[in-house]
Design brief:
This protein has 7 helices and 5 strands, in the order H-E-H-H-E-H-E-H-E-H-E-H. By secondary structure, it is of the alpha/beta class. Helix 4 packs parallel to helix 5 and helix 5 crosses helix 7.
């Protein structure tokens, strides 16, 4: 929500399919053109839809870890940048604790802070692993 509120443009996100299927969340997710994605890390349909968002020069928010509170990095970001040539603007949300329960996370008073880095531009021939590594390094420096 902080990323959406801090931008003048609509930010679309890849959203776990189970959230997208929620009756009370879906109208909001549709409003900002979110893309439902399977959590197994192999959802090519979602990646193609994300590439279309970038081709239309819209903003796509991606958690390279595959979610808000995960630590393993997924390769989709590298592929999307390689395919689209889009710039990457690193961002880091700090001061938020993700609880096992989404309800508890939302109900607990927190003091989030958001920092943006400088846009990263990559050469056409940049490898997805290079794109991902540079992006994660840029995010790490935002502390």
């Amino acid at each position: 929500m902080l990323l959406i509120a801090s931008n003048r443009r609509v930010v679309s996100f890849l959203v776990a399919r189970e959230y997208y299927e929620s009756r009370w969340l879906r109208p909001f997710l549709d409003l900002i053109h979110c893309i439902p994605v399977k959590r197994d890390g192999r959802d090519l349909r979602a990646l193609r839809a994300a590439a279309q968002v970038l081709a239309a020069q819209r903003v796509l928010g991606i958690f390279p870890e595959g979610g808000i509170a995960r630590s393993d990095v997924r390769r989709g970001l590298g592929w999307l940048v390689q395919e689209s040539g889009a710039a990457v603007v690193p961002a880091k949300v700090m001061g938020v604790h993700q609880y096992p329960s989404d309800w508890r996370t939302w109900a607990t008073r927190q003091r989030p802070r958001l920092r943006y880095g400088v846009p990263l531009h990559f050469l056409e021939r940049a490898e997805p692993s290079e794109i991902l590594g540079a992006t994660m390094s840029a995010i790490a420096t935002l502390a």
